[in-house]
Amino acid sequence: MKIKRKHLLISLYLLFTMSATASQVEVLHWWTSGGELDALSELQEKVEETGNTWLDVAIAGGGGNSALTVLRSRAVSGNPPTAALIKGPNIQEWAKLGFLTSLDDIAKREKWDEILPEFIKPIMQYQGHYVAVPVNIHRINWLWLNQAIFNQAKITIPTDLNELIAALPQLEAAGYLPIAHTSEPWADAILFESISLSVLGAEQYKQAFVDLNPQVLSSPAMINAFAKLRAMSLYIDKNAKNRTWEQSTKLLINDQAAIQIMGDWVAGKLLQEKQSLNTKIRCIQFPGSEGAFSYNVDSFAFFKLKSVSSEVKQAQKTLASIILTPELQRDFNARKGSLPIINTMDKSDFNACTLQAYADYQQAKLDNTLVPTFAQAMATTTYVQSAITRVISSFIYDKSISNETAVVQLTNAIKAAQ
Ligand code: GAL
User: Fold this and answer.
1) Which domains does the chain have, with CATH numbers?
2) How far apart are CA 15 and CA 227, in angstroms?
3) Beta strand 177-179 with 257-260: parallel, antiparallel or unpaired?
4) Which residues pair with 143 in a beta bridge?
């Protein structure tokens, strides 16, 4: 991709103004798998090019539960990192507790108000002040499938949820693992998110998981969504509980499993594995959810630091500045499998799945079918999100829970968490 002259000048500016005050940045995150690490190394390199050093605090676990637990204990004991991967309304929760620092000076200088998509700005701000910087847009409602397996089993690509469910026993009969699932609460939630988006549609999905409307939460459509989840959960194998999302992707690559239901960080993994995208392993919109786009915005929140040294503070600002530069946006997102935040980026180098995500994202904005992911903590508070996730996981692994009971549990759990 070409880098515009203006962008080059900004980078040179960063390099010269920031390198005079080199220090260390400590960054807490949960990006520990292939693709994620490759993408993050782009940020690390660009920070180190400014003369600052990078202290990596990586806590494994897709979805970030363990990382956020460590972050909480560090922050309350007065030792927060420079920045941490925090998303959605959780940014507000941290800011409200007084932990985050204002980035308004950088935001003003670098015109974040002009660069950032409208719907992302309020997520990054607390009481009108920027406290976090977004790095990408991931899409959740994808289905990854091994085309060679579908060909071999003579199954056509499912175009709706019923066809998808009908394909599962056929794939099993053909000797394949139908679904490469990861039995972790956040991945269970992703499975139900795609199903509910397919069954409810974007509008009712928002009413249920953003507005938390009790009528929609307890509606026949929601009971139906649980019925579909039950049908799919029968094909989750026992080994899923010892399998990371990345190992699930490997099962697709190795022609052992037919499908994976997961966000497009899978594309990052496929690229790291030197797979050409959308050929053998294809990305299709989760059947029945076509047109809707469930978004997950990775962002770094910046902490008030104990140190008063100007070097330390300057290094923190350097990190914040780099995230929205065109170079970082291009290099990071090319490896992460996500869309850049900056809309003016050259699209010619996008891989096939990112290109499709980009077109769908633009269309969803026009159609008002862009929805925040609840599974990945963009739709509600962390309390409500955990409550929803607990109901989903217990339903998946306890087959005695009926669809109707699950819906009652969902409604009650959300009410109690609000
Ligand atoms: C998400 C994060 C993604 C991704 C995934 C799996 O929470 O937003 O960027 O990598 O976890 O680790």
Assistant:
1) 5-138+296-352 (3.40.190.10), 140-295+356-417 (3.40.190.10)
2) 55
3) parallel
4) 284
Indicate if ligand 1 lies below 6 Å from the C-beta of 287: no
| Separation CA 249–CA 317 (nearest Å) | 36
Q: Is residue 7 a contact partner of residue 279, using CB atoms and an 8 Å limit?
A: no
* Residue 324 and residue 115 in contact, taking contact as beta carbons nearer than 8 Å: yes
Condensed to tens digits (0 to 9), the pLDDT of residues 215-261 reads 999 999 999 999 999 999 999 999 999 999 999 999 999 999 999 99
By alpha-carbon position, which residue is closest to atom 8 of ligand 1?
Answer: 298
Question: Model's pTM, two decimal places?
Answer: 0.94
Residue 249 Cβ < 6 Å to ligand 1: no
Reported as a single tens digit per residue, the pLDDT across 109-161 is 999 999 999 999 999 999 999 999 999 999 999 999 999 999 999 999 999 99
Helices (H) and strands (E) in the chain, counts: 19, 14
What is the position in ligand 1's atom list of the atom closest to the CA of 35?
10
- Cα first-last separation, the chain: 46
Residue 299 CA to ligand 1 center (angstroms) comes to 11
Residue 36: CB within 6 Å of ligand 1? yes
Does any ligand 1 atom lie closer than 6 A to the CB of residue 138?
yes
Q: Is the pLDDT of residue 34 over 90?
A: no
Q: How many angstroms does the Cα of residue 63 sit away from the middle of ligand 1?
A: 5
Task: Please report the pLDDT score of residue 321 as a whole number.
Answer: 98
CB 305 within 8 A of CB 108: no
